[in-house]
Amino acid sequence: MEQPAVTAVGTKTIATLAKVFNRCFRRLKSTDGRPSAPLGSRILTNSDDIFKHNMWDHVQWTEEDKEKARQKAKENSLVQIPFPERGKFVSDACHYWDTFYEVHRNKFFKDRTWLFSEFPELLPLNAESQGVEGRDPHAERLTLSVLERKPEARLEGRTNTETHRDSPLKTDKAFRGEAAAYRILEVGCGVGNSVIPIVKNIREKSAFLYCCDFSPCAIQLLKDHPDYDESVCHAFVHDLCDEEAAFPFPPHSLDVILAVFVLSSINPERMQGVVNRLSKHLKHGGMFLFRDYGRYDFTQLRFKTEEVHNLFSNAGLTEVQNVEDRRLQVNRKKKVAIHRVWMQSKYRKSPAPS
Protein backbone atom coordinates (compact mmCIF):
# COMPACT_ATOMS: atom_id res chain seq x y z
CA MET A 1 0.00 0.00 0.00
CA GLU A 2 1.17 3.49 -0.76
CA GLN A 3 3.31 5.13 1.92
CA PRO A 4 2.16 8.58 3.10
CA ALA A 5 4.22 11.71 2.78
CA VAL A 6 5.91 12.80 5.99
CA THR A 7 4.49 16.11 7.15
CA ALA A 8 5.84 18.74 9.49
CA VAL A 9 4.24 19.16 12.92
CA GLY A 10 3.06 22.68 13.66
CA THR A 11 4.20 24.62 16.71
CA LYS A 12 0.62 25.06 17.93
CA THR A 13 -0.03 21.32 17.74
CA ILE A 14 3.17 20.53 19.63
CA ALA A 15 2.33 23.05 22.33
CA THR A 16 -1.06 21.40 22.83
CA LEU A 17 0.50 17.94 22.96
CA ALA A 18 3.15 19.10 25.42
CA LYS A 19 0.51 19.92 28.02
CA VAL A 20 -0.93 16.42 27.79
CA PHE A 21 2.52 14.81 27.87
CA ASN A 22 3.42 16.77 30.97
CA ARG A 23 0.35 15.50 32.85
CA CYS A 24 1.11 11.94 31.76
CA PHE A 25 4.76 12.30 32.76
CA ARG A 26 3.91 13.53 36.27
CA ARG A 27 1.42 10.73 36.80
CA LEU A 28 3.93 8.07 35.78
CA LYS A 29 6.78 9.54 37.79
CA SER A 30 4.66 9.72 40.95
CA THR A 31 3.84 6.02 40.92
CA ASP A 32 5.89 4.75 43.85
CA GLY A 33 7.87 1.56 43.49
CA ARG A 34 7.32 1.28 39.75
CA PRO A 35 9.85 0.98 36.96
CA SER A 36 10.09 3.47 34.10
CA ALA A 37 6.88 4.02 32.16
CA PRO A 38 5.96 1.13 29.88
CA LEU A 39 6.00 1.76 26.13
CA GLY A 40 8.81 4.24 26.67
CA SER A 41 9.29 7.19 29.02
CA ARG A 42 10.59 9.96 26.74
CA ILE A 43 7.86 12.58 27.11
CA LEU A 44 7.89 15.78 25.07
CA THR A 45 7.15 18.58 27.55
CA ASN A 46 8.62 21.50 25.60
CA SER A 47 7.81 22.02 21.92
CA ASP A 48 11.27 23.53 21.40
CA ASP A 49 12.80 20.13 22.17
CA ILE A 50 11.03 18.17 19.45
CA PHE A 51 14.14 17.71 17.26
CA LYS A 52 16.41 16.62 20.10
CA HIS A 53 15.41 12.95 19.74
CA ASN A 54 14.24 10.58 17.01
CA MET A 55 11.15 9.41 18.90
CA TRP A 56 8.77 10.72 21.58
CA ASP A 57 6.53 8.43 23.63
CA HIS A 58 2.91 8.52 24.82
CA VAL A 59 1.76 11.02 22.22
CA GLN A 60 -1.84 12.24 22.42
CA TRP A 61 -3.51 13.22 19.15
CA THR A 62 -5.48 16.42 18.73
CA GLU A 63 -8.81 16.40 16.88
CA GLU A 64 -6.97 18.03 13.97
CA ASP A 65 -4.47 15.16 13.89
CA LYS A 66 -7.29 12.60 13.88
CA GLU A 67 -9.13 14.29 11.04
CA LYS A 68 -5.97 14.51 8.93
CA ALA A 69 -5.35 10.79 9.49
CA ARG A 70 -8.91 9.91 8.48
CA GLN A 71 -8.60 11.95 5.29
CA LYS A 72 -5.24 10.41 4.37
CA ALA A 73 -6.64 6.92 4.91
CA LYS A 74 -9.62 7.76 2.71
CA GLU A 75 -7.34 9.05 -0.04
CA ASN A 76 -5.09 6.03 0.28
CA SER A 77 -8.05 3.67 -0.08
CA LEU A 78 -8.91 5.10 -3.50
CA VAL A 79 -5.91 3.29 -5.00
CA GLN A 80 -6.66 -0.44 -5.08
CA ILE A 81 -5.13 -3.49 -6.68
CA PRO A 82 -7.19 -4.66 -9.68
CA PHE A 83 -9.40 -7.55 -8.64
CA PRO A 84 -7.91 -10.13 -11.09
CA GLU A 85 -4.46 -9.55 -9.59
CA ARG A 86 -5.42 -9.91 -5.94
CA GLY A 87 -5.48 -13.69 -5.93
CA LYS A 88 -1.79 -14.02 -6.71
CA PHE A 89 -0.86 -12.26 -3.45
CA VAL A 90 -2.53 -15.18 -1.68
CA SER A 91 -1.54 -18.05 -3.93
CA ASP A 92 2.05 -16.80 -4.40
CA ALA A 93 2.57 -15.33 -0.92
CA CYS A 94 5.35 -17.74 -0.03
CA HIS A 95 7.23 -16.80 -3.21
CA TYR A 96 6.98 -13.09 -2.41
CA TRP A 97 8.29 -13.55 1.14
CA ASP A 98 11.13 -15.78 -0.01
CA THR A 99 12.09 -13.18 -2.62
CA PHE A 100 12.06 -10.47 0.07
CA TYR A 101 14.40 -12.45 2.34
CA GLU A 102 16.65 -13.51 -0.52
CA VAL A 103 17.19 -9.83 -1.30
CA HIS A 104 17.41 -8.37 2.21
CA ARG A 105 18.74 -11.45 4.06
CA ASN A 106 18.89 -10.57 7.78
CA LYS A 107 19.74 -6.88 7.27
CA PHE A 108 16.26 -5.33 6.92
CA PHE A 109 14.96 -5.46 10.53
CA LYS A 110 16.83 -4.78 13.76
CA ASP A 111 16.90 -7.17 16.72
CA ARG A 112 14.11 -6.40 19.18
CA THR A 113 16.14 -5.69 22.28
CA TRP A 114 13.07 -3.99 23.83
CA LEU A 115 11.21 -7.28 24.12
CA PHE A 116 11.91 -7.95 27.78
CA SER A 117 10.97 -4.44 28.87
CA GLU A 118 7.52 -4.68 27.32
CA PHE A 119 7.03 -8.45 27.55
CA PRO A 120 8.81 -9.72 30.69
CA GLU A 121 6.44 -12.71 30.51
CA LEU A 122 8.82 -14.17 27.93
CA LEU A 123 10.92 -15.45 30.83
CA PRO A 124 9.93 -17.55 33.85
CA LEU A 125 9.57 -15.52 37.04
CA ASN A 126 12.54 -17.24 38.63
CA ALA A 127 14.75 -15.82 35.86
CA GLU A 128 14.05 -12.17 36.75
CA SER A 129 16.91 -11.76 39.22
CA GLN A 130 19.47 -13.29 36.87
CA GLY A 131 19.68 -10.18 34.67
CA VAL A 132 18.03 -9.72 31.30
CA GLU A 133 19.28 -7.67 28.38
CA GLY A 134 17.49 -4.36 28.00
CA ARG A 135 15.68 -4.20 31.36
CA ASP A 136 16.16 -3.74 35.09
CA PRO A 137 16.20 -7.26 36.62
CA HIS A 138 14.83 -5.90 39.92
CA ALA A 139 11.98 -3.89 38.41
CA GLU A 140 8.44 -4.96 39.16
CA ARG A 141 6.48 -6.02 36.10
CA LEU A 142 4.15 -3.32 34.90
CA THR A 143 1.58 -2.78 32.17
CA LEU A 144 -0.37 0.30 31.23
CA SER A 145 -3.51 -1.47 32.37
CA VAL A 146 -2.08 -1.24 35.90
CA LEU A 147 -1.64 2.52 35.64
CA GLU A 148 -4.81 3.36 33.80
CA ARG A 149 -7.46 0.85 34.71
CA LYS A 150 -7.39 -1.89 37.27
CA PRO A 151 -5.00 -2.19 40.25
CA GLU A 152 -5.95 -5.84 40.68
CA ALA A 153 -4.19 -6.58 37.37
CA ARG A 154 -0.74 -6.24 38.99
CA LEU A 155 -0.04 -9.94 38.92
CA GLU A 156 -2.16 -10.92 35.92
CA GLY A 157 0.78 -10.54 33.57
CA ARG A 158 2.96 -12.99 35.45
CA THR A 159 3.12 -16.38 33.81
CA ASN A 160 4.96 -19.15 35.54
CA THR A 161 4.48 -22.76 36.51
CA GLU A 162 3.71 -21.39 39.98
CA THR A 163 0.80 -19.29 38.68
CA HIS A 164 -0.74 -21.81 36.33
CA ARG A 165 -0.01 -25.34 37.43
CA ASP A 166 -1.42 -27.68 34.82
CA SER A 167 -1.65 -31.35 35.42
CA PRO A 168 1.34 -33.18 33.90
CA LEU A 169 1.24 -32.92 30.12
CA LYS A 170 -0.26 -36.10 28.76
CA THR A 171 0.78 -37.09 25.27
CA ASP A 172 1.53 -40.42 23.65
CA LYS A 173 4.14 -38.91 21.36
CA ALA A 174 7.47 -37.45 22.43
CA PHE A 175 8.18 -33.94 21.16
CA ARG A 176 11.16 -31.64 21.11
CA GLY A 177 11.28 -29.37 24.14
CA GLU A 178 9.00 -31.53 26.29
CA ALA A 179 11.55 -31.61 29.14
CA ALA A 180 11.50 -27.81 29.47
CA ALA A 181 9.49 -26.31 32.31
CA TYR A 182 8.70 -23.17 30.27
CA ARG A 183 7.79 -23.20 26.57
CA ILE A 184 7.48 -20.21 24.23
CA LEU A 185 6.25 -19.99 20.65
CA GLU A 186 6.93 -17.07 18.33
CA VAL A 187 4.85 -17.01 15.15
CA GLY A 188 6.04 -15.13 12.08
CA CYS A 189 9.60 -15.15 13.40
CA GLY A 190 11.24 -14.07 10.12
CA VAL A 191 15.03 -14.28 10.32
CA GLY A 192 15.05 -14.18 14.12
CA ASN A 193 14.97 -10.55 15.28
CA SER A 194 13.00 -11.70 18.33
CA VAL A 195 14.34 -15.24 18.43
CA ILE A 196 18.01 -14.40 18.92
CA PRO A 197 17.47 -12.03 21.90
CA ILE A 198 15.22 -14.66 23.51
CA VAL A 199 17.65 -17.51 22.89
CA LYS A 200 20.46 -15.54 24.51
CA ASN A 201 18.38 -15.18 27.66
CA ILE A 202 16.79 -18.62 28.11
CA ARG A 203 19.89 -20.77 28.18
CA GLU A 204 20.18 -22.71 31.44
CA LYS A 205 16.70 -21.57 32.52
CA SER A 206 14.78 -24.79 31.72
CA ALA A 207 13.01 -22.94 28.91
CA PHE A 208 12.51 -23.80 25.25
CA LEU A 209 11.58 -21.63 22.27
CA TYR A 210 9.64 -22.72 19.20
CA CYS A 211 9.53 -20.33 16.25
CA CYS A 212 7.92 -20.56 12.85
CA ASP A 213 7.57 -18.58 9.65
CA PHE A 214 5.82 -18.89 6.31
CA SER A 215 9.10 -18.45 4.40
CA PRO A 216 11.54 -21.39 4.10
CA CYS A 217 14.23 -18.87 3.17
CA ALA A 218 13.73 -16.95 6.43
CA ILE A 219 13.89 -20.13 8.52
CA GLN A 220 17.12 -21.21 6.85
CA LEU A 221 18.68 -17.80 7.42
CA LEU A 222 17.70 -18.06 11.09
CA LYS A 223 19.22 -21.52 11.44
CA ASP A 224 22.43 -20.23 9.87
CA HIS A 225 22.73 -17.47 12.49
CA PRO A 226 25.75 -18.08 14.76
CA ASP A 227 23.63 -17.61 17.90
CA TYR A 228 20.91 -20.05 16.87
CA ASP A 229 20.98 -22.88 19.42
CA GLU A 230 19.09 -26.12 18.75
CA SER A 231 19.39 -27.13 22.39
CA VAL A 232 16.91 -24.39 23.38
CA CYS A 233 15.20 -23.53 20.08
CA HIS A 234 13.37 -25.24 17.23
CA ALA A 235 12.66 -23.22 14.07
CA PHE A 236 10.25 -24.64 11.49
CA VAL A 237 8.23 -23.63 8.44
CA HIS A 238 4.52 -23.22 9.12
CA ASP A 239 1.53 -21.59 7.43
CA LEU A 240 -0.71 -20.17 10.17
CA CYS A 241 -3.66 -20.04 7.78
CA ASP A 242 -3.47 -23.73 6.98
CA GLU A 243 -6.11 -25.29 9.22
CA GLU A 244 -4.65 -28.77 8.77
CA ALA A 245 -0.99 -27.87 9.45
CA ALA A 246 0.24 -29.49 12.66
CA PHE A 247 2.55 -27.97 15.26
CA PRO A 248 5.53 -29.93 16.67
CA PHE A 249 4.02 -29.83 20.17
CA PRO A 250 0.66 -30.90 21.64
CA PRO A 251 -2.24 -28.68 22.76
CA HIS A 252 -2.02 -27.05 26.22
CA SER A 253 1.80 -27.17 26.16
CA LEU A 254 2.85 -23.50 25.81
CA ASP A 255 3.39 -20.88 28.51
CA VAL A 256 3.67 -17.95 26.07
CA ILE A 257 2.80 -17.18 22.45
CA LEU A 258 4.42 -14.14 20.85
CA ALA A 259 3.01 -12.47 17.71
CA VAL A 260 4.82 -9.26 16.71
CA PHE A 261 3.71 -7.55 13.47
CA VAL A 262 2.29 -10.82 12.17
CA LEU A 263 -1.51 -10.79 12.25
CA SER A 264 -1.68 -7.61 10.16
CA SER A 265 -0.22 -9.60 7.25
CA ILE A 266 -3.10 -12.10 7.39
CA ASN A 267 -6.44 -11.69 5.65
CA PRO A 268 -8.84 -10.24 8.28
CA GLU A 269 -11.35 -12.97 7.46
CA ARG A 270 -8.83 -15.60 8.61
CA MET A 271 -7.44 -13.87 11.71
CA GLN A 272 -9.98 -15.29 14.15
CA GLY A 273 -9.31 -18.84 13.07
CA VAL A 274 -5.56 -18.31 13.45
CA VAL A 275 -5.90 -16.94 16.99
CA ASN A 276 -8.36 -19.69 17.95
CA ARG A 277 -6.00 -22.43 16.80
CA LEU A 278 -2.98 -20.88 18.48
CA SER A 279 -4.82 -20.34 21.77
CA LYS A 280 -5.61 -24.04 22.04
CA HIS A 281 -1.90 -24.68 22.51
CA LEU A 282 -1.59 -22.40 25.56
CA LYS A 283 -1.54 -23.90 29.01
CA HIS A 284 -4.22 -22.73 31.40
CA GLY A 285 -2.87 -19.42 32.69
CA GLY A 286 -0.59 -19.03 29.65
CA MET A 287 -0.17 -15.66 27.95
CA PHE A 288 -0.65 -14.47 24.36
CA LEU A 289 1.58 -11.43 23.68
CA PHE A 290 0.64 -9.24 20.73
CA ARG A 291 2.14 -6.17 19.07
CA ASP A 292 1.09 -4.82 15.68
CA TYR A 293 0.15 -1.72 13.70
CA GLY A 294 -2.64 0.47 15.05
CA ARG A 295 -5.42 2.32 13.28
CA TYR A 296 -4.05 5.09 11.02
CA ASP A 297 -0.42 4.07 11.41
CA PHE A 298 1.08 5.30 8.12
CA THR A 299 -2.55 6.04 7.07
CA GLN A 300 -3.37 2.33 7.09
CA LEU A 301 -6.58 0.85 8.47
CA ARG A 302 -5.03 -1.61 10.88
CA PHE A 303 -6.11 -2.66 14.38
CA LYS A 304 -8.35 -0.75 16.79
CA THR A 305 -8.44 -1.58 20.51
CA GLU A 306 -11.95 -3.02 20.33
CA GLU A 307 -11.02 -5.19 17.33
CA VAL A 308 -8.04 -6.62 19.20
CA HIS A 309 -10.18 -7.22 22.28
CA ASN A 310 -12.82 -9.08 20.29
CA LEU A 311 -10.21 -11.12 18.45
CA PHE A 312 -8.69 -12.54 21.62
CA SER A 313 -11.84 -12.62 23.75
CA ASN A 314 -13.59 -14.69 21.10
CA ALA A 315 -10.74 -17.19 21.44
CA GLY A 316 -11.56 -17.54 25.16
CA LEU A 317 -8.74 -15.35 26.48
CA THR A 318 -8.94 -12.65 29.16
CA GLU A 319 -7.52 -9.14 28.73
CA VAL A 320 -4.50 -8.16 30.80
CA GLN A 321 -3.31 -5.27 28.63
CA ASN A 322 -4.75 -3.73 25.45
CA VAL A 323 -3.40 -0.27 24.66
CA GLU A 324 -2.43 2.00 21.81
CA ASP A 325 1.23 2.95 21.70
CA ARG A 326 1.23 6.41 20.13
CA ARG A 327 4.57 7.98 19.30
CA LEU A 328 6.03 10.87 17.37
CA GLN A 329 8.78 9.78 14.99
CA VAL A 330 11.18 12.57 14.08
CA ASN A 331 13.55 13.06 11.17
CA ARG A 332 15.96 15.56 12.68
CA LYS A 333 17.83 16.12 9.44
CA LYS A 334 14.73 17.06 7.44
CA LYS A 335 13.01 18.70 10.44
CA VAL A 336 9.79 16.74 9.99
CA ALA A 337 7.79 14.44 12.26
CA ILE A 338 5.08 11.85 11.79
CA HIS A 339 2.66 10.12 14.11
CA ARG A 340 3.07 6.37 14.60
CA VAL A 341 0.48 4.07 16.19
CA TRP A 342 1.01 0.53 17.40
CA MET A 343 -1.17 -1.84 19.40
CA GLN A 344 0.28 -3.74 22.34
CA SER A 345 -1.78 -6.38 24.09
CA LYS A 346 -1.56 -9.28 26.52
CA TYR A 347 -4.30 -11.88 26.84
CA ARG A 348 -4.36 -14.72 29.30
CA LYS A 349 -5.93 -18.15 29.16
CA SER A 350 -8.04 -18.81 32.23
CA PRO A 351 -6.53 -21.01 34.94
CA ALA A 352 -7.65 -24.61 35.01
CA PRO A 353 -10.85 -25.23 36.98
CA SER A 354 -10.22 -26.36 40.55
Task: Please specify the SSE layout and strand pairing.
Blueprint: H1 11-29, E1 55-56, H2 63-76, H3 83-86, H4 88-91, H5 93-104, H6 115-118, H7 144-148, E2 182-187, H8 195-202, E3 207-213, H9 216-223, E4 233-237, E5 254-260, H10 268-279, E6 282-293, H11 305-313, E7 317-331, E8 336-349
Parallel strand pairs: 2-3, 2-5, 3-4, 5-6
Antiparallel strand pairs: 1-7, 6-8, 7-8
Please name the defining characteristics of this protein.
single chain, 354 residues, alpha/beta, eight-stranded mixed sheet, 11 helices, 8 strands, 28% helix, 19% strand, disordered N terminus
Rg, please?
A: 21 Å
Shape: globular
List the total number of helices.
Answer: 11
Low-confidence stretches: 1-37, 129-168
N- to C-terminal separation? Answer: 49 Å
Note the main sheet.
8 strands, mixed
Number of strands: 8
Strand % is 15-25%
Order of helices and strands: HEHHHHHHEHEHEEHEHEE
Mean pLDDT: 77
- From the helix content, strand content and strand pairing, which structural class follows? alpha/beta
Going across the major beta sheet, what is the strand order?
1-7-8-6-5-2-3-4
Helix fraction, binned, reads 25-40%
Provide an overview of this structure.
This protein is an alpha/beta fold. The protein is 28% helix and 19% strand. It contains 11 helices and 8 strands. The protein has an 8-stranded mixed sheet with strand order 1-7-8-6-5-2-3-4. Strand 2, helix 8 and strand 3 form a beta-alpha-beta unit. The longest helix has 19 residues. It is globular and about 60 Å long. The N and C termini lie far apart (49 Å).
